[in-house]
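In this section we walk through a basic example: taking a raw amino acid sequence and producing a predicted 3D structure, encoded as discrete structure tokens. The instruction is simple. Fold the sequence below.
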Amino acid sequence: MRKYLLSESGTFYRANLHCHTTCSDGKYTPEETKKFYKDEGYSIVAFTDHRKFVRHPELCDDGFLALNGFEADISEPTPGGWSLTMKTCHLCAIALDENTETAPSCAGISYDGESISAYIKSCKDAGFFVTYNHPTWSLESYPEYMGYKGADALEIVNYGCVVEGFNDRNDHCYDDMLRGGERLFAVGADDNHNEAHHFGGYTMIKADELTYEAVAKSLKEGNFYASEGGPKIEELYIEDGIIHVKTDCAREIFFSTDRRICHYAKGKDASFALREFDYFRITAVGQDGKCSWTRAYFLFDKKRK
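The resulting token sequence is shown next.
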């Protein structure tokens, strides 16, 4: 019996889930941003301007879907305000209902794990899909991000930060949070503010159709994978106790878990024996070294021994 982890049916749509425009500190208007991404083959952009929840139904057409969202920032207090050394937590929140008109404000939220976790809950209760963004750029490390509870996803790659010199490929942060009990998905995003930030990180969402409702359903279910321009992950399924991964052009494929049960395979396809672990995830590496990442899949509901 074959069980698909990335659904067998549907179409993959390329999405940027973290985007800034002239509505906040971006260089380009929402209309210009749509054109850039649509011309590059993207079907979905979540418009997540800083602290501004702006709906963009006018941008939607048969080949393009604008998701409505915003980016919240909660920073540690520093004398004189903004500082190049202060720690800060950034969260993108994407409305799962296209008719949502208001969003929870992050103003006045204290910079501590309990307060930020409560804010994440308020966003989710209001119907938003919440991602934790670019921990490296944010100068956050294990003591900070391990206090954040309840987010839907982590940016496993933030291309806007990468091109600015930050190592915001966040595999280790992802595993830390997973091993700490969070059941997070993994997304890729551009975090574009200008032309240098375009087209480097994205999420391939598999949905039945290019509608707000169908794409929101795929986000909630984790029916997607993240990429920085790495191999296309075409199939992921379990059959007869074997996990099968099929890509278009991978040079190598890594199988990671919460334990010392990890594997490596050369080639564009790979198979791994299903053993008991809390979760597994796949990293597919292309000929140029660029990666694509599945989310973590939890197949057993047992405590780690």
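Looking at the output, two observations stand out. The mean pLDDT is 96. Residues 74 and 110 are 7 Å apart (CA to CA). In the next section we compare this with other chains.
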